[in-house]
Design brief:
257 residues; seven-stranded mixed β-sheet; 21% strand; Rossmann fold; binds S-adenosylmethionine; 40% helix; alpha/beta
Length: 257
């Protein structure tokens, strides 16, 4: 029997990343990371592992991707095979708090997935506990570009407290003894590209599959999300990548690779 198509898998099929980030920004950042062949990288809520795979390719290092969704892990596995990176990538299908880590990492990442750990600050705290001395954190997090209006929040059942401002995300990190050393805000062009492809992929799928059992539900969800994005989201919500280092012991020379 065919596996039921899931909303997120269908909607993401034209997208390179599972979050509204720029591939160019990632490709410019990667060579600046202080990693090498021996480095170990952890990706929490890794999705298809696109960012992690680019890091593994660049440095020849190895990494672990953790996600609860077998569909995205299957894509990650296939992409790793195609790029001859299978031996460098371990995939764990578990909720992040159920994983027992026996090691620490040179870079821990959580992009568009802080909800895996609870709140944004929980994700930073958790990633910090898994860092080697001098390790870095790469976080991708939403923020309010302006206060959201109630109609927008109601459209997707969101709450104002769920996100902070762009700098609010940095201030919360300060409270956890983390200091930002690089950041990149997603441009309007990338937001439009992400949300447009998310909507278009679903619209095309439904047009090609008029007998799909969840047709009405998926159509309604996709339409209402995109309409809310066009009405309010694109001017209200932002997304940014932040690279953090710990604010203590960070003047010591690196002793581990
Ligand atoms: C928005 S996607 C981001 C994927 C990827 N980081 C990216 O930017 O392309 C969030 C991912 O978190 C995963 N996820 C949700 N809850 C999780 C949990 N408790 N533990 C691990 N992964 C989780 C989802 O399955 C999904 O793949």
């Amino acid at each position: 029997m065919a596996k039921p198509a899931k909303f997120s898998s269908i909607a993401h099929r034209f997208l390179t990343f599972g979050s509204p980030i720029s591939g160019q920004a990632i490709d410019k950042l990667i060579p600046l990371l202080p990693l090498n062949e021996q480095s170990r990288v952890l990706d929490i809520g890794c999705g298809n592992c696109e960012v992690l795979l680019r890091i593994l390719k660049h440095f020849g290092c190895s990494g672990v991707g953790v996600d609860i969704n077998e569909d995205v892990l299957a894509i990650a596995r296939k992409n790793a095979e195609q790029r001859s990176l299978s031996e460098q990538l371990s995939l764990v299908k578990e909720a992040i708090y159920d994983v027992e880590f026996q090691e620490s990492f040179d870079l821990t990442m959580c992009i568009g997935a802080s909800h895996c750990c609870g709140k944004y600050e929980d994700s930073l705290r958790f990633m910090k506990t898994l860092l080697k001395p001098q390790g870095l954190i790469l976080s991708g997090e939403g923020f309010w570009r302006r206060p959201p209006n109630q109609a927008y929040l109601d459209s997707f059942g969101g709450r104002r407290e769920e996100l902070h401002s762009f700098y609010g995300n940095v201030e919360l990190a300060h409270g956890i003894q983390l200091s930002a050393i690089w950041s990149h805000e997603t441009s309007d062009e990338h937001w439009d590209d992400y949300e447009g492809k998310y909507r278009l992929a679903m619209a095309r799928f439904l047009a090609e599959n008029p007998d799909f059992p969840q047709y009405e539900d998926y159509m309604q969800r996709s339409k209402s999300w995109y309409d809310a994005y066009l009405a309010w989201g694109r001017s209200t919500m932002g997304f940014a990548l932040y690279l953090f280092q710990t604010t203590h012991n960070n003047t010591k020379p690196r002793t581990t690779p």
